[in-house]
Design a protein that fits this description.
The protein is built from four helices and no strands. It has one domain. It is an all-alpha fold. Helices cover 71% and strands 0% of the residues.
């Protein structure tokens, strides 16, 4: 499965709070902010909450961890 397919499918229909944290992280990466670690931590908390609440799937949770939280970010 290619990365474009993952993004198109797995980053859709998210809870509002997760969507907002993802947007802020992407903007932070784009603008090369110095507090990127804080944005990653916020996203991690939102991903965890969304998964525990059943708002995202395990596949989505793993995807966010692989792509944004544990690596794969290009600064």
């Amino acid at each position: 499965m290619d990365e474009k397919y993952n993004s198109d499918i797995l980053e859709k229909c998210l809870p509002k709070y997760l969507e907002e944290d993802l947007k802020r992280l992407k903007e932070g990466i784009k603008n090369k902010v110095s507090y990127l670690d804080c944005l990653i931590n916020e996203l991690q908390g939102s991903v965890n909450s969304a998964f525990v609440d059943g708002d995202i799937t395990e596949e989505q949770c793993d995807y966010f961890y692989r792509k944004y939280i544990y690596g794969g970010l290009i600064y």
